[in-house]
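Lecture 7 notes. Example A: sequence first, then its C-alpha cells.
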Amino acid sequence: MRVLICDDEIFAVDSIKKMVSEYFCEHNLPVEITGETDSAKVVADKTPFDIAFLDVEMPKYSGLEVAKHLLSFNSNTIVFVITSHQGYLDSAMDLRVFRFLPKPPDRERIFSGLDSAIRFYNENTRMLLTDGSTAQRIYVRDILYITIHKRKTLVVTKNDEIISDKSISEWKDILPNAMFVQPHYSYIVNLENIERLDKDTIILKKNNSESVKVKISQRKYKDFKNQFFDYISQENF
C-alpha cells in the first residue's frame, strides 16, 4: 500500500511515519510511505495513494485542499485529517474524510485508525489475477463492466483495462449482486457507474470526460432497467 503523510512540521511527519511503519511491520503488510512537509509538492504531483494522513493547517495548501486534490484522481484514497479544531468538520465531511485524529495523534489512535482503514480496503477490493501469476487489488466500485475476452475476461475500470483469469460466472459469484447485473450474456455491468440507460445501450462514466458504451440485450432490457431503478432509488436514501 502507498501511504502519504503531509504536515508542515518535520517532527510530526517523522513521528507518524514511525508509527505507521511499526503498524505495517507488526501486521506483516507491504507498505511504501511518503513523508512531505511541503503541501505544494503534493498538489503538484499526481501520485496515487491508498491512505493519506493530512494536517489541516499548513501554509500554501491546507490539508483539506490536499485531500481534494488526492481524491480528484483517486476517489478511493482513505483520508485521515489531523487537527485539534472542530471548525473543519463540515468541509471534511463533504470530502468523505475517513477519520479525524487529534493533534498530535498517539500510537493507539493511529493503530486503531489503520485497523479500520485496512478492513475497509479489504472489504471494498477484490484480488485480480492478471496472467495466472501476477495479482493486484482493484476497488469494486471502480469497475465499469466485465466482458468475455477469449477464454478469460476483460475488466474495464474507471482508469484501466485488465485481463483476468476469472470467468464471467466466477465474477458473478464474488461481486455484490445488488450492484453488478448482467444486461447481456457476455457482460456484467456496475450499476453505480451508469451515466445513461438507452433502449439498446448503457453509457458508463469514467474518471475523465470519456464514456464507454455496453450493449444491452432486448430480452433483458426490462429486468435490467427495473434493477437499475431499484438500485439508484436505494442510493438516494
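Example B, a different protein, same format:
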Amino acid sequence: MAETPVPAHAPAPAPAPIRVLVVDDHQVVRRGLRTFLEVQEDIEVVGEAADGDEGVARAEELDPDVVLMDIRMPGSDGIAALRTLRERGVRARVLVVTSFTERRTVVPALREGAAGYVYKDVDPDALAAGIRSVHAGHVLLQQEVAEALLSPERDDPPQGRGGTLTEREREVLALIAGGRSNREIARALVLSEKTVKTHVSNILMKLDLADRTQAALWAVRHGADRLR
C-alpha cells in the first residue's frame, strides 16, 4: 500500500508591517522619511500630518502603531499633541524626531508619554531600528538626550525615594532604563512575567510615577548604573 504523503508545513505568515504616521510641518522632511521608510520591508507609512491637531486627527483615523512626531510646529505643537493622544487613549507609541535638544523640550515630551526621543540627524538605519524598538514596547533615548536629562537644570523627584525600593526592584528599574520589556526582564532575572509586572507596579507606586517611560526617565536622571 502506498504511503500517504505528508503535507508540507506551510511557511509561517510574515508579521504585519509596523504602521507609521509621520507628523512634521516640513514637507521635505515628511517626504524624506516616507521615501526611506517605504523601502523597509517591515514598516509601512500610512499617513502624514503637518501639525499637532492634524496629527491627532490622523492618528485617531488611521490607528497607526507608531507616530513619528516633531515638537516645534505651527499651531498645535508636538507636546500638546502628545498630551491629547494620551488623554484620548490612542494606542500608538510616539517616537519624537526633532532637532531641538534643550532639556526643557525633552522632559515635557517624555512626561506626556513619548516612548522615545531622537534627533533628526539620526542615522536612517538607527531610526528604523528605533521604530521597531518602541513598537516592541521599549523606551528609546539617544545618548545626547540622556545627557540633556542629566544637565544641572533639574527638577527631579527627591533622590531619597529610590531608597524605598528593594534590591530586586532596583534591578528591575535598571533594566527598564535599558529599554527591556517585561519578558526580557523576566528572562534576565529568572522570574515570571507576572512577578516582573508586580515589581514594575511597586516601582511606579513608590516613586509616584505614571508609567514605564517616567520610570526610565527617573532612572536615567539618577544614574541607572548606580541602581544595580
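Note on Example B: Residues 152-160 have pLDDT under 50 and may be disordered. The CA atoms of residues 138 and 179 lie 5 Å apart.
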